[in-house]
Amino acid sequence: MMYLKNYPISISAILIFLFFSTLSSPCMAHPDILMINSYHKGYPWTDDLVKTTIGAMKERFRDCNLYVEYMDTKRIKTAGYLNLFQKIMEEKYRNRRPDIVIVSDDNAFRFILHTHKKLFPGTPVLFMGVNNFEPAMITGHPEITGVVQSVNIEDTIRVALTLTPGFKRVAVIYDNTATGRGYRKQVLETEESFEGLDFIHLNGALLSTDEMLERVETLPANSIILLCIWVRDKTGAYVPWERTYPEITKRSPVPVYGVIDYMLDFGVLGGMVQSPKYHALEAAGMAERILRGESPARIPVHMRSHNVLMFDYRAIRKWNIDEERLPDGVIINRPKGLYYKYRKWVWGAFGTLCFLLLVIMILLGNIIRRKRAEAALAEREEWYRSLFEGSLDAIVITTEDGRMRGAGFLDTKKRNYQD
To answer: Mean pLDDT across the chain, nearest whole number?
Structure first.
């Protein structure tokens, strides 16, 4: 039959096809992954992005090689510095081409748009944390896709209307960084949905940090604050967030709502916040698809990132908000009670108590067995005593080898003898 003759040829053709497909497949067991971050190590958003991304990629590719770079553009962003950073990248990765480049936030994204074809021609690029994104930005860049950082400001304000009823003003705090300008754009788009509210913009392009704080202190009682970002004021100097955010919530006479989860550790009440962990996990899933052979051009940009409804328990108490009015969400920093505070001591004491109870039970068991043995011995002695004393004959008890163990003698008082 004809198909029997062609059968070996078909098998050979399939094996050859699979062999060359394997050689040409971009899926790899040890991918080289380069991550370029816009900001510096120690910036909380960046730290969580890096930590989560590395963990997620290690789970997917156990033996992957990760290289992490920081542009530090929150603190310095001059043309000369950016040119120097580009030269460093050229020299550093001249003979080390990564299999994928992951960029976080706007400045790294814009950097890779301008240098991609020169630094990493043909290499797939995945972005995340980008605020000011327009699809036209990646026209002519089929190797680029990613996750847009979108904050749900509208839902945060609607939650505020429920928890802080009666306010008429929203003081929006943002700086003049690329991230701040992105938040400003999203706030302006949101204002159209709240015609009855007056939005006051505390803009870092126009205010110093001290001027912003003074404006915060003088806000009327019928206001709330929406804190977006403040790390650089009109002087151009970098302002550490760990100093500014606690100062804002301390001086504010009204509740402060936020847009990122780590803000809640500094007195921010809450809101529909972004989490860099969810953001990084979403991006890592897309990176895996690319490294396993899927073309970035076939993976659409995710225009809306994941947001979580989250509140700070301490701020809830500070502003006397009834928890029953809270929508379903996450509450952090809730006191865990004495047990959670002293649980190590509790479990240590419990273990000691169990050990002592075990010792007591063993001792009680020994006492009970000893008393039983003593009672049995006394009963046996009484039986022998009655046997010997009540017998009218002489009794001798011997061992098997003839040695005498005991003897009983005749009680002449209890028997009459006759000759």
So the answer is: 87
> How far is it, in rounded angstroms, from Cα 348 to Cα 354?
10
Q: Is 286 helix (H, G, I), strand (E, B) or coil?
A: helix
Distance CA 196, CA 144 (A): 41
C-alpha closest to that of 39 among 67, 66, 77: 77
Burial class (CB in 10 A: 0-12, 13-18, 19+), 163: buried
> Which residues are 101's β-sheet partners?
34, 125
Count of beta carbons in the 10 Å neighbourhood of residue 362: 10
78 vs 15, more confident: 78
The contacts of residue 316 (CB under 8 Å, 6+ apart) are 269, 323, 326, 331
Of residues 210, 202, 159, the one with CA closest to residue 183: 202
Nearest 5°: phi and psi at 309? -80, 115
Whether pTM exceeds 0.85: no
Reported as a pLDDT band with limits 50, 70 and 90, residue 390 is: low
**Which residues are paired to 307 by β-bridges?**
274
Contacts of 334 (CB under 8 A, 6+ apart): 313
> Residue 309 has which token pair?
């409804």
State the DSSP code for 323: G
- Non-local (6+) Cβ contacts of 404 within 8 A are 396, 397, 398
Nearest-angstrom CA–CA distance, 318 and 247: 16
Tell me the pairing of strands 144-148 and 169-174. unpaired
Identify how many contiguous H helices and E strands the chain contains and give both numbers.
12, 14
69/366 Cα distance (integer angstroms): 70
Of 188, 239, 180, 183, give the one whose Cα is nearest residue 205.
180
**Cβ–Cβ under 8 Å, residues 296 and 144:** yes
299 C-beta neighbours (distance < 10 Å), count: 17
Q: Over 70: is that where the pLDDT of 37 sits?
A: yes
Measured between alpha carbons, how far is 73 from 88 in angstroms, rounded to an integer?
15
DSSP annotation string for 10-73 = HHHHHHHHHHHHHHH----SS-EEEEEESS-TT-HHHHHHHHHHHHHHHHHSTT-EEEEEE--T
Widest Cα–Cα separation across the chain: 144
Rounded Cα–Cα distance for residues 249 and 257 (Å): 10
Residue 25: pLDDT band by 50, 70, 90 thresholds?
very low
pLDDT tier, 342 (very low <50, low <70, confident <90, very high otherwise):
low
